[in-house]
């Protein structure tokens, strides 16, 4: 019996030597933002977050106030809600999340961590939370463009358990912010398919739709009108000191929005990049 135990012990030790070493997690105090690399199970620090100043986000004052208030409460250790920012493409959803993080951190430097998880890595959320649970830093877990298109994709169940339903649930030092083009995170045809093929259609649909109910704060974003679009561009021009006459940039902005078929914060920023490049002025 002893010989068998010794043999099993040697086999276990050999397998352990062959197994790849687990990557060491970085010091979460070394940066204000990280990206979760699910393929290697590691958080990677972000040297410079791609974001705009919150004062440059126009036409979304209500959404900004609501998200800032929620984020401040969370940063200060008070109860706060998971947030779903949904609506039109390019309307400033992800920009607002990053800007709100920067704004709150500016009020109390270094206190709030931002961690991004990619949509395709949602099923690795429990693994990520084991790392975040052990840090003292309060953390915004951010997923951009969250949606579920394939009826065979069950990763949304991992997200539901993390948000509220699991035994462990979401750690007290973590809040989840997501952006999506869809209010219920699933396309209408996917929900209709569940209704038509299920034994109990209403229960099947509830299973899908209930995911968005896990977010206590819903903020809707919509395409802006022309005056708001002009206000966005005027704000960028003033911020970056672009030397251009108002008549010139207004005419150019109208033409630019017509070629894109929409008016939004993203279209306004793309026009500013075009304008600055044409003027030969850097955006610094």
What does this structure look like?
This protein has 284 residues and is α/β, with parallel strands linked by helices. It has two domains: 33-221, P-loop containing nucleotide triphosphate hydrolases (Rossmann fold), CATH 3.40.50.300; 226-279. It has helices at residues 2-18, 61-75, 93-107, 125-132, 155-165, 188-197, 201-213, 226-240, 246-260, 265-279; strands at 33-37, 42-45, 83-87, 112-116, 138-143, 174-180, 217-221. The chain has a seven-stranded mixed β-sheet with strand order 2-1-4-5-6-3-7. Strand 4, helix 4 and strand 5 (138-143) form a beta-alpha-beta unit. Helix 9 crosses helix 10 (265-279). The longest helix has 17 residues, at 2-18. The model has no long low-confidence stretch (mean pLDDT 82).
- Count the DSSP helices: 10
Structural class: alpha/beta
State the CATH class of the largest domain. Alpha Beta
The strand order across the widest sheet is 2-1-4-5-6-3-7
Quickly count the domains: 2
| Proper CATH architecture of the largest domain | 3-Layer(aba) Sandwich
Overall helicity? 40-55%
What's the overall geometry?
elongated
How far apart, in Å, are the first and last alpha carbons?
73 Å
* Low-pLDDT regions: none
Mean pLDDT: 82
Radius of gyration: 23 Å
How big a fraction of the residues is strand? 5-15%
* Largest sheet entry: 7 strands, mixed
The strand count comes to 7
- The H-and-E topology, N to C, reads as HEEHEHEHEHEHHEHHH
CATH H-tier superfamily of the largest domain: P-loop containing nucleotide triphosphate hydrolases
> Which fold name corresponds to the CATH topology of the largest domain?
Rossmann fold
